[in-house]
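hiii, so i know i said id send this last week but things got crazy w the move. better late than never?? heres the sequnce for the chain we talked about at the cafe, plus the structure i predicted for it. fair warning i was half asleep when i ran it
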Amino acid sequence: MKSVNASIITIGDELLIGQTIDTNSAFIAQELNKIGIWVLHRVAIGDVWDEIWNALDEERRRSEVIIITGGLGPTADDITKPLLCKYFGGKLVLNEKVLDHVKYLFEKVYRRPGALLEMNRKQAEVPDVCEVLFNKRGTAPGMLFRSHSHISGIDATRDRDSVFISLPGVPSEMKGLMTEEVIPRLKKSFELPAIVHKTFFTAGRGESAIADHIKDWEASLPSNIRLAYLPGFGMVKLRMTIRGDKKEDLEKHLAPYSEKLEELIKDILVAEEDIPIQVVIGRILKEKNKTMATAESCTGGYIAHLITTVPGSSKYYKGTVVSYANEVKENMLGVKHETLISAGAVSEDTVLQMVKGVIGKLDVDYAVATSGIMGPDGGSEEKPVGTVWIAVGNKQRSEAKQFSFRFERERNIEQTAIAALDMLRKFILADSQSL
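okay and structure toks below
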């Protein structure tokens, strides 16, 4: 079975100057990968007619699937739709279903009856040579074009047709169209290979240290199994990938190698799947019917944010005390004034008292506390920037650990949050085993 390759083209000047971060490409690539389509190339270009046209020419020579995002709005700089219309030799026609949806959005959702402008009506115009992908979340429809080998300009040496898909740049609209319209159509359009991933989520050891530890195992991998190191803030994911015709055969072939890897990294293993650590924490707490809270100084509520991104986290997470100022540590969490004077806010005693205080204040089973110096200022010779104390505990006992991070402020905060959640995970598991 031949592989099916894809290219992703993102359009917008705001992407090139860094005003907007391109999260669309990552989501599209992930969804394509799930169904066995390999993303061969990604390119970002500005709102320039010739550059978009040339990118279409270039990517159709590489890939069977070309997905474009951006440039579908109602303003003059949104040129993707008229360009695609000309590229595929069509003309713009009014789609009544799309127009009715645009009217509905203005009248019922936006609550602006009578505010529909001519430029908004034009969003209901689509090339007559495309398949319309209905956008439930916005006014700009998606469009699918099929280029056949007999069409002028298409590479006649290819034995398969190409599919061009244009999606809005708004992430929520793009995601809805990808999952509801694009993926089902691609499955019908191509005979896709099976793909199997096995991901191990680790924490507590760096990428190079892991690579050295498993080098003999990695050298034993057959050529059809690929290993990828995916480092993040305070964690490393190891992803094994194999492709072929039958999923069951691939899983059977992969099993002995993944079992051996799991044994090698069991001391740093957080999860045997590609999930964030806040999901791991949530599963453990729900399984044990326990609750938790956070007391955050240097992380400023970031741990609370991570936890509450998980649907259903209200079942086990009660809240946080963001005790950024010392008086909040004293008045809300009961940290002793003498401790703050003698040991300082960034100290073992302070975070241990923060844990005790938030457990009592919010009446939870477990808690985690952070206090540190995130930078770029505020450090000293004794406590340089990146010095962090983290404590975890329950109503009976608690423990603390010092960390030394060496990055910029944002990354230090993220490193601290991951380290704190991993400490809490280990504490809960150890606590359960001692019962």
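btw Residues 149-159 have pLDDT under 50 and may be disordered. thought thatd interest u
miss u guys!!
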